[in-house]
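Example 3.
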Amino acid sequence: MNNSKIKLILLLTVASIMLTCSASSRVVFKGEGLVTGEPGMNSYPEEEPGETALIERAYEIAPPSVPHAISDFTIDRTTNDCLECHLDGEEFDEDHIATKIPPSHFTNEYRQESVEESVTGIRYNCTQCHVQQAIVDFKFWNGSL
Amino acid sequence: MGQSSGVIVAVGSAIYLNPFEVFKGDPEADLKWDKAPCRFCGTGCSVLVGVENGKIMAVKGDPESSVNQGTLCAKGYALPFIQYGEDRLMKPLIRMKNGKFDKSGELMEATWDEALDLIAEKIKKTIDTKGPQAVAMFGSGQWTIWEGYAAAKLWKGGLRSNSLEVNARHCMASAVAGFMTTFGMDEPMGSYDDFNHADAFILWGANVAEMHPILHSKMTDRLLNSKNAKLINLTTISNPSSEFADKEIIFKPQSDLAIANGIAKILIEEDKIDKEFLEKHVLLKKGKENIGYGLEDNFEFKEEAELITMADYAESVAKYTPEYVEKISGISKSDLELLAEIYGNPDTKVMSFWTMGVNQHTRGTWMNNLIYNLHLLTGKISEPGNQPYSLTGQPSACGTCREVGTFTHRLPADMVVTNPEHRIRTEKIWNLEPGTIPEKPSYHAVEMMKALDRGDVDIFWSMTANPFQAYPNLNRYKKGALKKGRFIIVSDVYPTRSTEVADVVLPSAMWVEKEGSFGNAERRTHFWKKMVDAPGESKSDLWQLIEIAKRLGHGKLFEYSSTDYPLPTGQKVSDATESAGFYMEKAIWEEYRQFGLGHGHDLAPFDDYHNSRGMRWPVVDGKETVIRYREGYDPYVEEGTDVQFYGNKKQDNKATIWFRPYEPPPELPDKEYPFWLSTGRVLEHWHSGTMTRRVETLYKAYPHATANLHPSDAEKAGFKSGDKIRISSRRGEVVLHVEVGGRVTPQEGMIYVPWFDEDVMINNVTLDAYCPISKQTDFKKCAVKMEKV
């Protein structure tokens, strides 16, 4: 689904919400949930690391989302491409600095273990928490309508 | 723009918070923290929840939890948002025309009294005309333990209806049937502590990296820290669980049956079996063959088991030569030998893992038996690092569905309605007249929907589930629900595909809006307290069940002593407790606990769970059990016996090795429908996406369900990523976009479609065949075709 189509849906949605709300004080519930009536396609940013701005975190201590392409990245037993830049907070230029991995990732409080060269084993799968964000509008659900 | 224009209508008039307001304060200083289990998968991670001014502002992985050791997955970190979608259901709704209930009317706001009175009236009328079995309750492993217990007590002990089922039937019924037939007792013998001792992890059709991310991380941790440790991903779809694997082995759908038998054959032939263990702890049996697929209404199955000798068993598996296995499965002789070497090497500690690939299988019970066979043949069971490990999907599939027994045939603590002693024991604890609980199971989940379509069931109440997105072959069942005379009640937190067909919608409180209890996949029971108020007029499912019980004259089932269970102090009080005037959750717990005491299902007193990060049952003298059936670990194992599978007391505490053959699935790709279809989940979305698709980070991480194709299938069909196609089966069709080279790549000839997306109703296409023993549906195999739209 392209962006203009999404915008059209949003517009119609806003209009329909306003209409329904003003039409009756007793709310009629259509029960259509998240249905838009159209299947969608997922497309993710293609910019390389160092080319993108940070994505605002959902809350202060939420794991940051990945703003750049990672489709070619390898995370396996011998290689972790994420660590290349994020271990030390690589500076691409003054506006583009890789988010440095925080101390929490180098210690396992439960097991009272610390590591230095890499992150702890249980946090090694970066993408299980740090997810990409597709190019798609979400304003529909954002309460600010 | 398709079928809907007014996509969402604001519900209720309460002023509600903006869910995407970013908390900028100091988490430690400004927030009040309390512990709770995550409300998503069966891993059962512990989270710390940060609350400010009655709102959840943040969560973090609980560093004191042995499960997740301070971390979470993407879904876990999204927990602060799941309550706060702007279309949260706030008031009861009744389908009405001219101010009166009318099945062809529209859902209109109503009061709780109006909604509950209507439901009570309908239930009474149905019981009078069609009998209690025509009144059905459908819950899930997302019920808290006391909610599942209240539903079981009300249905079986109050209404005298065994029409109680859960979506867990579609999820782990084969696991239960596997445990019961092999060990006579449900749930894994090991725990997550075993990860740190294993030398090899074998995944049997389980994409753990996406479905149980923290367990995958525990494996990763072991693989990084023990250089010789191995991971083998045995799968029908190339997936992210292979990233750390030494070997990804792709097999044809259904052929896991042949592979497991092929491994057993090699183990026996190469004398890699543990004869002493087998002699002391194992019996061998064979059961009925050609058992069918449950496709016809009113299907019934009866096992015919007979004892066999080791020689009989060896002769039965002898047919599964590497050549024969390769022909059926497509896996090479060397891969089969690699697996046999891992299982057979006495120095290699092996953990086998499985979930939906094995359980959602028309021979799901057999596949569970076959994996246990490998561990029993080699004696690699019930010791650190040597465990067959059945994983569960939902946060309390174990704690609620399995342990409480919220299935048509079950009662708490592994008891069944068909056993007169079990009924008497239950009636005694529930203080009921003897003979109250009906002795005949009524409808298992699929049959329940068929009964609704036929008119044998008139009332269908869904709680913590979304059956009209989750069931297979939905075209039939949705039509059934809409028929005149059917009355559908949906308790939920958001509008869903199920509220679309509902006659009454009840707004539920969720997660930390109530006091709760879950049981995870390592027998860990864990509790949480209410932390925030539920929005609008929403109420917990426990409150809803008790209120309907009162209206049906069964209020006494939930009357307990306020002297024994005084209101709790220093904490938020749940709606059920507030209405009752005594500590309802504690009263129910202490009653429920009586079922398990003294026979291996022991649960601890109520307060112990609030004061810990949970405990693994049996909890005896305040001590949890990390490994069952092994002397020195399990207090139920008698001294000097080493191992006792005491679920099978009647067969001298021995486990059973079952010979189970390969049998083909009911529907195979053919000329007209040349592709396999498999469905499943993705990391970011929980089940039908009701909660996770309302969270910005998760929605954007994986917005839509697509059809994942093998590159050569896409090329042959002339499709490229982004093309819009129609997938159809003999039962229905769905339109969606093609994805090639995405996160997963199915084998040639197979299409993978996740089912979380309300705009891609893949379950209109799937087949409602099930395992005749467990009655669990097979969502992984049916025949489809695809064409460009």
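Residues 3-23 of chain A form the longest helix (21 residues). The mean pLDDT of chain A is 78.
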